[in-house]
Amino acid sequence: MALLSVDELSVTFAGQGGGRGAGSGARRDTKAVDGVSFEVEEGQVVGLVGESGCGKSVTALALMGLLPRKGVSVGGRAEFDGADLLSMGEKKIRDLRGSQLAMIFQDPLSSLNPVVPIGIQVTEILTRHRGLKGEPARKEAASLLDRVGIPDPDRRLKEYPHQLSGGMRQRALIAMAVACAPRLLIADEPTTALDVTIQAQILELLKELVDQQGTALLMITHDLGVVAGLCDQVNVLYAGRAVETAGRRELFAHPTHPYAHGLLGSIPRLDAPRGDPLRPIRGSINDKIAWADGCAFAPRCDFYTMECLTGTPELTEPRARGHQVRCVNPVLPAETSAGTAEVSS
Ligand SMILES: Nc1ncnc2c1ncn2[C@@H]1O[C@H](COP(=O)(O)OP(=O)(O)OP(=O)(O)O)[C@@H](O)[C@H]1O
Ligand SMILES: [Mg+2]
């Protein structure tokens, strides 16, 4: 059984301003996550990939029980080791966070306490979850900072968050997340602010955690290089829904949803012929339609047909078992496309 099992997760933010009454101004709710399902097993790395605003962080915050209660409605199920995270009481989920569940946040400055030295923030976790105190806790904290590539860890332990660079703060947060050896780690763009050598070091550390301690890792990123280096299974999100789910190799070899296809086609490759232009996906994530009216990606899609505007497309497996695609007109080799129409209708 999967350690984390997410089933039709949805998150809606109530619109602000105006009111419900006619004539009192528009009040539009935001459906940030719209029926997302995936699983993460122990020792597995699962990626959530997609453009800015597609619902990655909101998915993570919903799983961690960190969304505000007011003005937000969360639907679906999310089971962690058999217990439903979404209906769990505040105290229970707080106990889980930091011990079995940990998250590396996208914004490091707002996740560290600005008036407490880094060392105290790290040792607090070691004391609370691993019972380490005094000198052994300090030594372990220094070794954790060293492992995430922070030079001169003894000095850095005494410093406050504002004395560290953005990349160092991010690494301190990573050290805090791995300090308690969580069973599930959610990493939200953990390496975006870091230069490539440190990025490689952090990815190596996360890999080690997964391989040696069997940690389940939910990796949120828009960096396909990170996905290629780390993920076993990948979920590509678009406008709050998974549009393609597959094993890493399968996805990179056969991206089948036009969005995933475009995403992979838009990254620079060293093995591409000289002068071959990059092919960005046209438009932006704002050019979308509601899923209820068809495929949200249709306004940007090079392959769209009128069929794409007739209700939400279902997930199908037009290529291979376990390779799910939400598209009525997927990108397939010419000889198999006739068969596809049957599968996806
Ligand atoms: N507190 C909030 N109130 C209203 N809307 C919100 C709130 N938080 C997020 N959203 C909206 O939810 C959608 C998804 O946001 P989310 O932060 O999950 O995107 P993301 O995929 O993590 O993007 P990025 O790659 O930029 O971090 C966006 O349209 C965003 O504007
Ligand atoms: Mg985000």
From TrEMBL:
Note the superkingdom of the native organism: Bacteria
* Membrane-topology annotation of the record: Peripheral membrane protein
| Annotated InterPro entries | AAA+_ATPase, ABC_Ni/Peptide_Import, ABC_transporter-like_ATP-bd, ABC_transporter-like_CS, Oligopep_ABC_C, P-loop_NTPase
Keywords carried by this UniProt record = ATP-binding, Cell membrane, Membrane, Nucleotide-binding, Transport
GO function term, MF aspect, one: ATP binding
The principal localisation class reads membrane
Pfam families hit by this protein:
ABC_tran (PF00005), oligo_HPY (PF08352)
Task: Tell me where it resides.
Answer: Cell membrane
- Which residues does the UniProt record annotate as the domain ABC transporter? 6-264
What family does this chain come from, according to its entry? Answer: Belongs to the ABC transporter superfamily.
What is the official name of this protein in its record? Dipeptide/oligopeptide/nickel ABC transporter ATP-binding protein
Name the species this protein comes from.
Streptomyces camponoticapitis
